[in-house]
Amino acid sequence: MSASAQSRRPRRRAYRVLAAAASLATVGALAAALPASAGAEHAGGGKGGEKRTVDVQLLSFNDFHGNLQPPAGSSGQVTEKQPDGSEKKIDAGGVEYLATSLRTARKGNPYSVTAAAGDLIGASPLLSGLFHDEPTVEAMNKLGLDVTSVGNHEFDEGAKELARMQNGGCHPKDGCFEKDKKDKKGKGKKFRGADYPYLAANVTDEKTGKPILKPYWVWKHKGVKVGFIGVTLEGTPDIVSADGVKGLKFHDEIETVNKYAKVLDKQGVKSIVTLIHEGGVPKSQTYNYDCDSPGAGDGISGPITDIAKGISPKVDALVTGHTHNAYVCTIPDPAGNPRMVTSASSFGKLYTDTTLTYDRRTKDIVRTSVKSANHVVSREQAKAPDMTSLIQRWDKLAAPVANKPVGYVSADIPGRGAGVPESPLGDLISDAQLAHAKSLDPKADLALMNPGGIRSDIVFKASGSEGDGVVTYGEAFTVQPFSNTVNLVDLTGAQLVTGLKQQVSGSNAASPKILQVSEGLTYTLDMTKTGADRVVADSIKLNGKAIDPAATYRVAMNSFLAGGGDGFAELGKGTKPIVGADDLKAFNDYLTANSSADKPIAPPKADRIKIVK
């Protein structure tokens, strides 16, 4: 990013003007007046009277997913551990509050950089998703994001669309979304793209072998330099539609980071942060638990632990994401030195504030002095006026579509925020897909839904003027924003059983992905066992009858699963396919046909899968 882009914030610009105009003595007085904990410069032997060390503030977040408005229901809450050991739910998130939190945190910190670890866009609520996430990129520009890695959802619409997010320009099919008041010819307002770089060090073009975007970027301020390397998880092709990653190759995270750490080191950049869209699973769902108890990194497991242990000691900190979890952990690097690994939940509910003490003599981070903590993006603080204006502007364009009622519910129907293997909303979506499949082929037997495709909850309380219990198109879109189609295929009973076993084996062994199932399909999931044995094969029944391995079943699922996504390779082997409407239409049609103001849909019992713990 250019120096001019970095200095766009009034806070930084003011500091530079003061520094340029003042004498060294005056600058020293100003620095001395800053809070000791806020970007303080420390005594030592630097050139020209400079302090030897300076605190660099690294603010970070991840997995924003276009949540400009505060997320609804449990998706918009964080859990806080209280001093007495009890837990408290706190409403959090929304870009109006995230912007205020970050701007407040930057005060008094002349050396401050803001970074993200991917999935800022994609799987977004309607306000952003309807406009191909242009509103979110605009919001990130305004709140002062300096750099981000790509995540898997940055590839939902393919590499060309990701390049448009970076470089700007109107959508190739939908055109420009806003009118340009200065343009007398009636052309639309051109989308300017991201002011911040998207980093994709481990994503290369299959033909050229070169990264499709910048692999790294260096933040510079008053002689201080910090390099950022950005990568997404190597398994991105397994969780993104085939069209989204066509022509791309995804490389090992550790090998890639270590490669570019050497490149930065040779350039004289000794302070390095990795932004990696891969994460871990904490032992506690409270955001403020002690991840280093009883020992360093003992409070976290999952892919990021092995990755962190393999990344070069040249890297001083890891900002992570993907799992939507919150943690601040110290995981030793390969040399045995402590290194901070952080993640700030999702949807802008938290941000991480990390202090990196930079040594001007060595140009490196004093690793033992690194401090970090997650902070709640509380909705009790003031909203950022510029973000409120942004939301109102885009909401006006989205309103005719977003506010249309599509159904009625009698109570909250938990989905993303349910926190259990089988969710009531997962059952409802599966039933909706089976109903749509039966309209294509009356012989359709069952439907399966991937849990990652359920992005929110259905909330009884009105989000606007629609009234309690009313489900709007915008709310349904937030639940299912991917535009997958409902596909119908033939699978043998043996294939179906294998597919169910893949929920807890293979690539899903460490982090199971429990499929949501339509009414009539039942089985037992025994979590006391390991691997594929967790699915009790002889318990799998359809309408009370055991699955016949030799029989053929017509199975409905979205196009992502039908392509073998999420590690369900067996489901990708279906035959005699029929492609139906998109999954959102199937869901909306089901809500409309099966509910009314007088007879709303009640939350399904979520008792189709028996869980043994």
From TrEMBL:
SUPFAM superfamilies to which the protein is assigned, alphabetical: 5'-nucleotidase (syn. UDP-sugar hydrolase), C-terminal domain, Metallo-dependent phosphatases
Signal peptide (from-to): 1-31
Regions that span the bilayer: none
GO MF, one annotated term: nucleotide binding
Keyword field contains Signal: yes
Biological processes per GO annotation: nucleotide catabolic process
Enzyme class, broadest EC rank: hydrolase
Domain 5'-Nucleotidase C-terminal: 414-569
Record-level GO cellular component terms: outer membrane-bounded periplasmic space
Biased composition (Basic and acidic residues): 81-91
InterPro entries per record: 5'-Nucleotdase_C (IPR008334), 5'-Nucleotdase_C_sf (IPR036907), 5_nucleotidase/apyrase (IPR006179), Calcineurin-like_PHP (IPR004843), Metallo-depent_PP-like (IPR029052), TAT_signal (IPR006311), YhcR_MPP (IPR041831)
A Pfam family hit: Metallophos
Domain Calcineurin-like phosphoesterase residues, every copy: 61-325
EC number(s) on file: 3.1.3.5
Region (Disordered): 65-92
UniProt keyword annotations, A-Z: Hydrolase, Nucleotide-binding, Signal
UniProt cross-references to PROSITE patterns, sorted A to Z: TAT (PS51318)
Domain of life from the UniProt record: Bacteria
Family: Belongs to the 5'-nucleotidase family.
Listed name of the protein: 5'-nucleotidase
Taxonomy of the source species: Bacteria, Bacillati, Actinomycetota, Actinomycetes, Kitasatosporales
